[in-house]
Specification:
Layout lengths: L5 H4 L6 H12 L13 H10 L6 E4 L6 E7 L5 E8 L5 E4 L3 E3 L14 E4 L2 H15 L8 E4 L9 H12 L11 E5 L3 H8 L6 E5 L5 H7 L8 H15 L3 E7 L7 H11 L4 E7 L11 H13 L4 E4 L16 H5 L12
Parallel strand pairs: 4-7, 7-8, 8-9, 9-10, 10-11, 11-12
Antiparallel strand pairs: 1-2, 2-3, 3-4, 5-6
Helix pairs in contact: 4-5, 6-8, 9-10
Bound molecules: iron/sulfur cluster.
Length: 346
């Protein structure tokens, strides 16, 4: 489904058909053109062939769970993972992938081990949100927010990620408020600079994961291209220009980035910044071990004492292997879903 093609597919039809089609897809969330009764029968039949609406996916969990994961099969057979997070306050946030695999090779990340297979189009990013919007529809619920924190680095696919943001934000489409959309980057400085100049209300999150260059470079190859201080200088410029709060993500890994001195170094870096630090429990991918709850509480205390806003997040989706890239392996990405029947075995 390439949403940018729908105008072409409807060429020769009256102009208002485009608005009707978009309404059908994004507002009424139809899964079959037969449900768009405003269209003549022949047009419905043609669209079923030229612009089919079904989304092929394998779902893990159900909407009663705090997290529902889906593997969506793309038109070339590659698959991407996407997660719906259901919050206790009623919000429904979709965590989207921006690439199949990822070129950034972070040491703690399962997706990073896949390397990059390809980037997603804007439509393929939006498709993930549409999938969950349809899933929630029978409950009278909607997707209220989107975070770009799934597979891939959004700023390594900048143009398509930003085009997807605009599609998601479209008032005549899924109408997800910009303030409810967050883009997370591992620290691509050029991407942050471009994002600063977009003047969007979209939130920015930075995967920091270590306060010192040595540890950060061991965890994240991208950190070899800049220092922590250089990254923070670019973020400071973003804050100065946009007056928007930045989220710093800190994955807590036992014996790696959870030492006392790292807590104090982190607090020092964050002090006085318009930011929030999000301490995230690590879901082990086999290489590292999670930090203990005590270490997380220690970090939280140190940051609070320094006056730094902080939250501690135990990951949504642990029950469906919800950490980035943990469901899909490299081999899976090449295999069509038809031969995967047992969700528990994936
Ligand atoms: S953590 Fe994010 S940026 Fe790093 S390898 Fe995984 S998907 Fe890519």
């Amino acid at each position: 489904m390439d949403f940018t093609q729908i105008g072409e597919v409807l060429e020769g039809e009256p102009k208002y058909r485009l608005a009707q089609a978009k309404r059908g897809i994004f507002v009424d969330l139809v899964e079959d053109w037969e449900q768009v009764t405003a269209f003549p029968k022949a047009l419905r039949a043609r669209l079923a062939v030229d612009f089919p609406l079904p989304i092929e996916a394998q779902t893990f969990g159900d909407t009663k769970m705090t997290a529902v994961k889906a593997l969506i099969r793309l038109s070339d057979g590659k698959r991407i993972e996407t997660v719906l997070m259901r919050h206790t306050d009623g919000r429904n946030t979709v965590c989207v992938s921006s690439q199949v695999g990822c070129p950034m090779a972070c040491a703690f990340c399962a997706t990073g081990k896949m390397s990059l297979l390809r980037s997603l189009s804007a439509s393929e990013i939006v498709l993930q949100v549409l999938f969950f919007a349809r899933l929630l529809k029978p409950e009278g619920e909607r997707v209220s927010g989107v975070v770009f924190m799934g597979m891939g680095e959004p700023f390594a696919n900048y143009d398509n990620a930003l085009a997807a943001v605009r599609m998601l934000n479209d008032h005549d489409g899924l109408n997800i408020g910009a303030r409810h959309i967050s883009i997370s980057t591992c620290g691509i400085l050029e991407g942050i600079r471009r994002f600063t100049s977009e003047a969007l209300q979209v939130n920015l999150a930075i995967s920091l994961h270590a306060p010192d260059d040595k540890t950060r470079r061991e965890l994240m190859p991208v950190a070899r291209t800049h220092t922590v201080l250089e990254l923070l200088a670019v973020v400071d410029e973003y804050i100065a220009q946009t007056k928007r709060k930045v989220m710093f993500e800190y994955l807590m890994i036992g014996g790696k980035n959870d030492a006392d001195e790292q807590a104090h170094a982190l607090a020092k870096l964050m002090q006085g910044k318009l930011c929030m630090v999000n301490l995230i429990a690590y879901n082990s991918t086999g290489v590292f071990v999670p930090a203990t709850r005590e270490r997380m509480v220690f970090f939280k205390t140190v940051l609070e004492q320094a006056g730094v806003p902080v939250t501690v997040r135990f990951r949504h989706g642990r029950e469906v292997k919800g950490a980035c890239g943990q469901l899909l392996t490299k081999e899976d990405a090449y295999v069509l879903p038809s031969d995967v029947t047992d969700a528990a075995s994936v």
